Q: What sequence folds into this?
């Protein structure tokens, strides 16, 4: 699957977003090394703090289907932003741990602006499992 096809998957995922509160729809497409694509969309809730972003939805769905860090080839995220969408801090933390440092991340918008980065580049000096002292 090429980048444009994966962007199209993310755009399709975006249309499934449940956003009665923000009306801001985000889509994600997470490609696995064996060629499967997991869709993610943001899913909101009247209890605002329970809203889940598109990026985390995609990763959690992939993990629920048995995929794990090392199994992913590419993440694409799309939203209706002026420039390429910028994942929130919580998602950067999750993308890094579940996707791994080197995971290529393509951020885009409905106009086709593209920013290509990696999971680690999106969260410098990250907190991680290595920081947790074993008791
Ligand atoms: O990268 C992003 C940024 C925001 N949102 C969602 C969270 C919330 O539902 C809405 C507004 O913040 O957009 C995402 O899903 N991904």
A:
């Amino acid at each position: 699957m090429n980048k444009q096809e994966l962007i199209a998957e993310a755009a399709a995922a975006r249309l499934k977003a449940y956003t009665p509160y923000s009306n801001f729809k985000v889509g994600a497409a997470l490609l696995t090394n064996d060629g499967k694509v997991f869709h993610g969309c943001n899913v909101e809730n009247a209890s605002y703090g329970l809203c889940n972003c598109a990026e985390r939805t995609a990763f959690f769905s992939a993990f629920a289907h048995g995929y794990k860090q090392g199994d992913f080839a590419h993440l694409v995220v799309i939203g209706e932003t002026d420039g390429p969408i910028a994942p929130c801090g919580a998602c950067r933390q999750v993308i890094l741990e579940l996707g791994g440092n080197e995971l290529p991340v393509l951020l885009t918008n409905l106009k086709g602006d593209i920013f290509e980065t990696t999971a680690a580049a999106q969260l410098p000096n990250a907190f991680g499992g290595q920081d947790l002292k074993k008791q």
Remarks:
- Residues 3-125 form a domain with the Cytidine Deaminase; domain 2 fold (CATH 3.40.140.10).
- The mean pLDDT is 97.
- The first strand starts at residue 26 and ends at 32.
